[in-house]
Amino acid sequence: MQSIINRAKGDRWIWLIVILLSIWSLLAVYSATGTLAYKKGVGSEQYLIKHLVFIVGGLGLMYVSHLLDYRYYAGISKILMVITIPLLLYTLIFGNTINDASRWVTIPIINQTFQTSDMAKLALITFLARTLTRKQENIKDVKKAFLPIMASVCLIFILIALANLSTAIMLFGVSILLLIIGRISIKQIAIVCLGGMILLTAVVLLGPRRKTYISRIETFMHPEKADPDKLFQGNQSKIAVASGGLFGKGPGNSTQRNVLPHPYSDFVYALIIEEYGLVGGVLMVIIYLIFLWRCILIVTQSPKAFGALLAAGLSFSLTIQAFANMAVAVGLGPVTGVPLPLVSMGGTSILFTSVAFGIILSVSRDNDEKKAKVKTEKDKVIVGEITELA
Fold it and tell me: pTM for the full model?
C-alpha cells in the first residue's frame, strides 16, 4: 500500500480534490438512494456498495492512467476514434431507449449499461489535442489541418446531439476552446462555429427528439406558460435548494429526496445544498474552481503542446460539465441529464471521468519529472563550479 502511495505522482491538490469528491459522493448517493431502494424493495446499502465499487474502480483506473506516459494517449486517441464513431451509430439505432433517448448500450455478460458519449468526449478531446499538435507546421492549411479537424468535431457533435444535446453542446464548446489554444485562425474557427450552428438548428428542429428539446427551451424561457408537469423537476430542485438554508439539514436528513427525480445523479447538487446548506454548495463550487486553477497551472507549465492541449481540453470539459449540472440544479439552465463529475451516481461516467483525471495527472507528473531533472542538472553545474573554484 505504501509503495502505491509513493508512486502516486502529479499535482497533490488534484489528488486531494478527487478524494474529497469521492467521499462526498458516497455520502450523497447513500442519502439519495433511500427512496429508490424502498421502491425496488432492496436495502439502500446495495446501491452504496455498487457505487463504492465504481468509485474504487475509478480510482484504480485513474492511478493506472496517471502512470502511463501521456504521449501514448496520442496513439490511443486514433483507436478510440475508430471505435467511437461506429459505437455512437450503433447506440442511435440499437441502443437502449430511456425517456425517448438512445444513449446507452448494454454490455453483454455483466449486463451493465454503457453511455457511449462518455467515451466520445475522451476520444474527441485526445484526438483534437493530437491533431492540433501534429499539424502545427501546416495549421493554416485547409486540406491538411482544417478539414480533418472540422470533420471530426462536426461528426461527433451530430452523432451525440441526436440523443444528448446538452453533452454535444458542451463538447463542441470545449473543441472550440482547443482550436483557439491550438492557433487555428479566427476565420476557420468561425466556419466551424457556423457549421455547428447549422447542425444544432437541424437537430433541434428536425431531429428525433425535437419536441423534447423545443419543450425544454420553451419551459425554461417562459415558465409562466409551461405545463406544471414540465416544471416539476426544476421546482422540486429549487425547493431543495431553498430549504437548505445556510448550513443545511445535515447529512442524510433530506426530505426532497423523496420527491425529487434523480436526486442521486442529475440533481445531486440540489440534495447537497439541502443537506449541507449554502456553505456546502459554495464549497463544492470552490473545489471545482481549485481543480480548474491547478489544471491551468499544469497547462502553462507543460513544455510540450500535446500535453498542454490534452490537460486543457479535459479540464475544461470536466469543469464545464460540473457547472452545467450545478446551474440546472439552481434553476439557471434548462433541465438536462448531465451528471456532476465524480459525485453523481453512475457507472461509465465515473470510470471515464476518472481516466480523464488520470491523464491530467500524467501530464502533471511529466512536468514535475522534467523540473526535477532540470534542477538536478543545475545543481551538478553549481557543484562543478564550486569544485573548480576550490
Answer: 0.91
